[in-house]
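Lab notes, practical 5.
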Amino acid sequence: MTRPRLLFLGHGAERTGPPILLGHLLDGLHRLDRHDLSVVTARSGPLLAAYERASAQVAAVGTERQPLRRTSALLRQVGASSAIEPAQDLIRRRALRRVPRADLVYVNAATPPTADLLRVLDPEPSVPVLVHVHELDIGLRLNLGAAQRAALFERADHLIAASRPVAALLRDGHGIAADRITTCAEFVDADAVRPDPRATVRAELGIPDDAAVVGSVGLPDWRKDPDHLLRAASLLERSGAARAPWVVWIGGDPASDDGRRLADEARRLGLTDRFRHVGHLDRPDRLLHALDVFALPAREDALPLAALEAAAAGLPIVCFRAGGVADLCDRGAGTTVAYPDTVAFADALARLLDDGAERERTGARARELVAAEHDVAPGVDRIVAVIDRFLPQGVR
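Output from the prediction step:
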């Protein structure tokens, strides 16, 4: 029997959700040692080395945050804008030629860069294509153009949904038949989540040991909506709550436009002295025990790895009912409220901050759910089952 080759297409190799999950999947496949692995990403990044350690043959199209931006800028300067897409496609083809022909193509995330890679690759009809969708409505409707959605969804033999809300959106919002979708919940390496001691990280952040602290992890952008967390904390302070919380945001760059805007919002709300924005960390889990409650104020989020890591660390969660974390909370891992009810969000934070026993119970349940359902082993098994189902008979 021929050993199958899997080709993974990714939008980047930075330490964000889908590229991190791809690294976990490649590690799991490497341990199984049943497939040959190739990866092509639109952008380079620190995870390329991890992909290579999983015995994957790796190629990256570009090195910048926006792939091929320099080429596009030069062509615009000389009045050759019509040549931009052909030039970009030529660079994509060169990267794709570095890897052998695949028996199955796995598109990790429904994004413009992955759609363009799949379009240029143009695999033969006999080669199955799986598209792993980590996105909800903002990603699929605002970030993807109609032609890019079609390139992904029409060519896909099957779609893997990162959470139940993603599957529902694909079915009800994009007209994809239910039998073309399998939900494979996102997962983390729970054993690798090892927060430093509470006293250590609070001292590092300049936060009193007896303070109430809420926080989150992620890019501080419009979709993640950190302003809602700041406003909830401000409501608690103005209400005269005995433990008006400190707020910690981990991720992004405090000097970026988003970072400066977030700092300005904290200033306008009178929270500057109790707000900490920690820039990108390779291991944000190290700081998790600085928090009493993990808050997810996102407008939408399919099932963020940061929330799963917080749950693995035993933190209770408060979130809007705007993604897959709500399912965890409904089963005892925390509290959900309707978006964008900031008052209800603040009340949910206050209840957990004021009740240490409830925080402990809820955090223990969150840890239990992640260990049972969102750890690496069951997560990889779910995806491998889909891969094996679609591999051609002669290479399974």
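Observations recorded by the TA: The mean pLDDT is 94. The longest strand covers residues 36-43.
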